[in-house]
Amino acid sequence: MTPIDHIPRVKLTSLPTPIEPLSNLSRHLGGPKILVKRDDLTTLGMGGNKTRKLEFLVADALEQGADTLITTGGVQSNHCRLTAAAATRHGLHCELILGADSVPQGVSSGNLMLDQILGARLHFVPLAQRNQKMEEVAAELRKTGRTPYIVPLGGSNGLGAIGYANAMVELKGQLCHMDWLVDHIIFPTSSGGTQAGMQLGAHISGFQGHLTGISIDQTLDNGFPESLASIANDAAGILGLEWVATPGQFALNADYLGGGYGVMGDLEREAIVLAARTEGLFVDPVYSARALGGMIHMIDQGTLPAGETILFWHTGGTPALFAYADALDA
Ligand SMILES: *Cc1c(COP(=O)(O)O)cnc(C)c1O
Predict the structure, then answer these.
(1) What pTM did the predictor assign?
(2) Would you say the CB of residue 42 lies under 6 angstroms from ligand 1?
(3) Does 156 participate in catalysis according to the annotation?
(4) Are the beta carbons of 321 and 286 closer than 8 angstroms?
(5) Using CA of residue 177, residue 180, residue 181, residue 183, what is the dihedral sign?
(6) Which of 22, 28, 151, 296 is most deeply packed, by most CB within 10 A?
(7) What CA–CA distance (Å, rounded) separates 250 from 231?
(8) Could you tell me the mean pLDDT of each successive run of 10 residues in the chain, 330 residues long?
(9) How far is the CA of 145 from the centre of ligand 1 (A)?
(10) Which is nearest to 53 in space by CA: 90, 82, 74?
């Protein structure tokens, strides 16, 4: 038992997610032993990391009597797709505010297509207006007698982060059972709930290794470490823990921002092809390929030395691959 077991939660996926050795990739790189934690295989709506957060956020929405989930993300947002999928499980409506400078034309693909199949109502607004639009949609719904619940970008608040604190407890149990020792966990980080939760979960579970977030779109001078600490502290507060996170505690690597959010470059393209051709494993162009590409570069440079065991946390996103067919050129 941990304090997390007292927090209301709905079940949206079978757990634990598998851990597998990537022996061919390890051999190919001539570096450390590499394991992968398959959160791309959470069972709701084609999988991904947002499911663990939504288990707590949807429970809160239901407790508050909500009939509609509202959230936001990019046009190819995995978080929006999974929020729409979670809504269907609980008989809730879903309104998605998708950041786009113009309404996408032509045949929709990837996550956008899945949002449509799931029956979510879509609103396209410029990126800068996303939060305001969520409030506007919520106000309109309230006028008609509905009860909306706003899920923040990426599900990244204290309550959502508890999903990843719990994931670390899950991981620690699996590692003990398999007698594996992990020196370093590598994963993509963007809105921060995953990393904030993992850091808290490392404390709760007594995980001793390093945790490094590969930044997808955040530089380190714009308050990102501070927001990680704030999310983690909110999560600890909800759990009634004395633990305090400081911004300096979060290990972040912002060397792989490339062309910016959602822009697939050589780093991502090569990681997608290498993972597929050594392991039959798909990573997504926006998040997991950027983090895997960063990890491969760190192995090549010796920053992640050969004697260690590295766990790559696969956070999902693979449906977005289909929206990048033109850029893949494999
Ligand atoms: C949202 C997302 C992330 C980043 O998680 P945060 O909690 O937003 O930092 C990583 N990978 C995938 C596939 C995602 O969809």
Answers:
(1) 0.98
(2) no
(3) no
(4) no
(5) negative
(6) 151
(7) 12
(8) 96 98 97 97 98 98 98 98 98 97 86 98 96 98 98 98 98 94 98 98 97 97 97 98 97 97 97 98 98 98 95 98 88
(9) 33
(10) 82
